[in-house]
Amino acid sequence: MTASAILEVEGLSKTFKVKDSHGRSKVVHAVNDVNLSVGRGETVGLVGESGSGKSTLARLIVRLIESDKGVVQFEGQNLQGLSSKEMKKVRSKMQMVFQDPYSSLNPQMTVFDNVAFNLWVHGERKNTNKKVMEVLQDVGLSQRQAAQYPHELSGGQRQRVNIARALVMNPQLVVLDEPVSALDKSVQAQVLNLLQDLKQEYGLSYIFISHDLNVVEYMSDKVAIMYFGNLVETATSSALYGSPKHPYTRMLMDSIPTLSKRDKWSGFQSIGEPPDPLEPQAGCSFRSRCLKATSRCEAEVPVLKNHEGGHRVACHLWDNSVEPVSTIEWLESFANSIKYRSLFGEENENELE
Amino acid sequence: MTRLFHRFLQAIPTLFGITLVAFALVHIMPGSPIDALVPPDASADVRAQVIHIYGLDKPLPVQYVLWLTHAVRGDFGMSIGMRVPVNQLLAQAIQNTLILGVAAAFFSFVTGTVLGVLAGLNQGKWIDRMVSTLGLAGVSIPAYWLAMVMVILFSIQLGWLPSSGMHSQGQEGNVLDLLAHVVIPAIALGFTPVGVISRMVRTSLLQVVKQDFVLALRAKGLMRRQILWHLLRNAALPVLTVTGLELGYLLGGSILVETIFAWPGLGGLLNSAIGLRDIPVIQAGILLIGTLFVLMNIVVDFVNSAVDPRIQRT
Amino acid sequence: MEISIHKTNHKEKDFKRDVMDEIQENTQTRRSFIQKLYSDPVAWGATFWIVLMIGTAVFAPFLTPYSPVSGNIGNRLMPIGTPGHFLGTDEQGRDMITRILFGGRMTLLMGIVPVAAACLVGGALGVIAGYFGKAVQSIIMRCLDVFYAFPALVLAIAISAALGPGVRNTFVSLPIVFIAPIARVTATAVQQIKGLEFFEAARVSGASHWMIIRFHLIRNIFRPVFAYVSTLIGISILVASSLSFLGLGVTPPTAEWGAMLRSLQDALYTQPTVAIAPGVMIFLTALAFNLLSDSIQDALDVRS
User: Fold this and answer.
1) Residues 37 through 76 of chain A touching chain C, CB cutoff 8 Å
2) Which of A21, A27, A66, A117 to mutate to test the interface with C (most CBs of C within 10 A)?
3) Strand partners, B247
4) Residue A215 CA to its chain's centroid (Å)
5) Chain B residues with CB inside 8 Å of C287's CB?
6) Cβ contacts (< 8 Å) between C26 and chain A: which residues?
7) What is the pTM of this model?
8) For a disulfide at A9, which of A36, A189, A327, B32, Cβ 3.0-4.6 Å?
9) How far, in Å, CA of B16 to CA of C146, rounded?
10) Mutation choice for A interface testing from C197, C216, C300 by most A CBs within 10 A
11) Which residues contact C100 (CB under 8 A, 6 or more apart)?
């Protein structure tokens, strides 16, 4: 544990019981043995496709749902097993911003009331007016908008209200669950810049969840890649974007629609859709989409191992700490990729967008 | 078939609850339950016997089990008012109620469908508004009062139809005579569901009209009448469901209507039992109606899933 | 709770959006609800009749010189249009207008009070069932299922028969009839709201159950529940008068429209128009409440 960490997550796991299409009970490992730490003033990006368990992880961290296993330590305090009274104190320091700007605000309360509710909860009847107005101003909303109802605002404005609601408690850590993915591109940039500014102004730490690698790169100091409930790669932002290691990460990088895509393309274009979470496969969960899967990947679950200077990867291919691709292999997969690219390329891009 | 069986299993807790309610009726009423079970002028011997049979001196759960084992065998004790076994009374009454109920259901189903189709085909026109007003009037009108008005009109003033009873003197086997007797009560009883059914027919008709296959039928050049047939077949399901559920209402309403017409059915029996505080009869009647209602819901469910493959699993 | 399964995600989002759209629409009509109702002539007519009934019920003693419970037996069953007794007299020579005015008091009370009482109990049960998870919900709902096993009228009759006749017992049996359906409608509304993110946001803020229910739940379920409850008043009036007609509700000599129909049953052959007069009042009043409820549902835009 680093001394400056505000949040330490160790071995966090959560399974859901669901019924499959035949009515049989199945267990889904939504979050599986996740370790993560967030330093003070740091932004940790969490990336994954939809269904990868990143939203569940966020809800586990703020204890909206109870974990099966593992520890969440906030400012050195283990949150598991705290009474609701003790938890309430922590909650004012740890807030969350939700994805959907439509359903995340109470439609029957004004913007002001939506924000002020958090203060009422903590019994702060004094200065409510001043505090709410200040924070609304900080997120760029006017006095007039404070008296309006959420449906009278645009999506971007609503998301600002959402942010204001989280900030009014003066939190240390804010978990941002896809805060901009429901917004138009032009509005996204505004909200992201706002989040950056507020981070400085309020001295915040962020956990920033997104499926958009560009956005995460812009926001984060550290990035964790999540696949199927597991963290498959964590590194500093520059290390991860500079030299992505896990095949899945590379696949994600490849699917970023950039103008200079050809330059970045690493031959890790992958195929197919994620496997059915109800029928988990043995070994590495990514192997069915990985062009480099070996027999070892079928047999053994890779664990997150330190590779170099804090860059950690969960992949057998990187066990020897060297680029695991021989020239012939590379050419082979290159040829395959071109074949698949023409067949599936478009589809994959859509899926990740 | 297994689904039907499954559905029955699901209903068991509810049926259990019904027996609890029926059992509780005797115990929430003021006074000792023994007074509810034997006529007040019964000899001490009889009283002692009943106390023994129903275990009235034992704790309540034991009493419930005893009562239940009797009830399952169809033994609901003796009617206090009429001094005959309750199950005899019920067996006769339920037949007569079914005659009235089926007649009323037939009336409301036919009238409701016709009105609903008329309204649906003339959406927004005066006839549509007429039907919807009529429907609202139907659910606002007290069935027993409508019965009184119809008696005044058709029996007293016009003399067309008999005003009460199920048969004229000496005409017990005559079907026409029975029909003449059943008309007014069936209409009075079936008037309320007409509004509900016609509204349902109208809605489902309009929903089906919006679907693509109707356009395809038109494109095929089918006659208006032929298209209507297709529409009705597709709109029939929700209407059948509603009609099935309205049967429950008919069971309740029959208590009122049978009273007015001296119809010798379950409702009339219950009403006279209520007047006499004849608890064994009330208890058994409630149990019977509740069970019928639950079974009817199961059948409606089952018919639905049998007809429409889309609602196999719910 | 968002269960992270790839395949269900889409559907769930669609559903959320639907619920939100519905609430949003309701909020948008926040101000126009009254306006919509205001511009509906049917609603006006119905409201006029209801207000008239309430007014005459409240001021009944000042509107008539006669007593509602005692009459002149010599004047029994006078026809409609008799001087001094415009609607005639009943089988005991009591003035019909007086009886109808006083009878309206009971009928209105029995239409509104049981529904209001059932609304409190059923609403609370529904909120508890919907809010506190599956186990609580299935316990409450299984218990209420028993009440669903009976047609409303049969249940009311059964309870009243066991408790015995009298107004007080009617005020017990009628609410019991309405509790189960109100609880079910409320629980459904709660569940729809519960999946939305503002609910989670409230929990992240550390709000107590009571705070969440008070600020986030009740405000958002009020409209659908209110729309449903408004349909019950007409039914309550009908069931209550049916009970009295069967001799299970209001007992003589108290005036009540259903009880009046009962006691006038024998006069059906001699004075039919007088005998059916109370029924006209029941019909018109129930119709007024049903029409108003229809308009309310239209104005709230919650009709299914």
Assistant:
1) 50-53, 55-56, 59, 62, 64-65
2) A117
3) none
4) 11
5) 136-137, 140
6) 107
7) 0.79
8) A36
9) 8
10) C197
11) C87, C255, C257, C260, C277, C278, C281
In sequence order, what are the residues at sequence separation of 6 or more whose Cβ sits closer than 8 angstroms to the Cβ of residue A51? Answer: A274, A277, C4, C5, C6, C9
Single-letter amino acid code for the residue at C301: D
Angstrom distance (rounded) from CA A190 to CA A262:
29
Q: Which two tokens stand for residue A26?
A: 């199945």
Q: What is the ipTM metric for this complex?
A: 0.79
Buried b (16+ CB within 10 A) or exposed e, B250-261: bbbbbbbbbbbb
Interface contact C27, partner A, CB < 8 A: yes
| Helix (H) or strand (E) run with residue C145 in it | helix C133-148
Q: Which residues of B touch C149 (CB under 8 A)?
A: 14-15, 17-18, 21, 290, 293-294
* Cα–Cα distance for residue pair A146/A140, rounded to 1 Å: 11
Cβ pair C214, C132 in contact under 8 A: no
Q: Which tens digit of pLDDT belongs to each residue from A154-166?
A: 888 899 999 999 8
Instruction: Please judge whether A98 and C219 are an interchain contact, meaning their C-beta atoms are less than 8 angstroms apart.
Output: no
pLDDT at B271 > cutoff 90: no
CB neighbour list of residue A335: distance below 8 Å, 6 or more residues apart: none
Q: What is the dihedral of CA C85, C234, C147, C171, to 10 degrees?
A: -50
8 A C-beta contact, residue A183 and residue A207: no
Is A56 within 8 Å of C5 when comparing Cβ atoms? no
Closest approach of C291 to chain B, Cα-based (Å):
7
Strands in A5-19's sheet, in edge-to-edge order, are A25-39, A5-19, A69-74, A77-78
Mean of per-residue pLDDT scores for chain A: 78
Q: What local confidence, expressed as pLDDT, does residue B82 receive?
A: 67
Min Cα separation B233/chain C (Å): 22
Tokens 């990460």 sit on residue: A249
Tokens 């009934």 identify what position?
A: C53
Contact yes or no for B142 and C164 at CB 8 A:
no
Interval A9-40: pLDDT, tens: 888 888 888 776 666 777 778 888 888 888 88
CA angle B257, B263, B265 (to 5 degrees): 95
Q: Does C31 touch chain A (CB under 8 A)?
A: no
Whether C152 and B30 lie within 8 Å, measured CB to CB: no
Following DSSP, what letter does each residue of B194-250 receive, concatenated? HHHHHHHHHHHHHHHHHSHHHHHHHHTT--HHHHHHHHHHHHHHHHHHHHHHHHHHH
Q: Burial letters for A44-71: b for 16+ Cβ neighbours within 10 Å, e otherwise?
A: bbbbbbbbbbbbbbbbbbbbbbebeebe
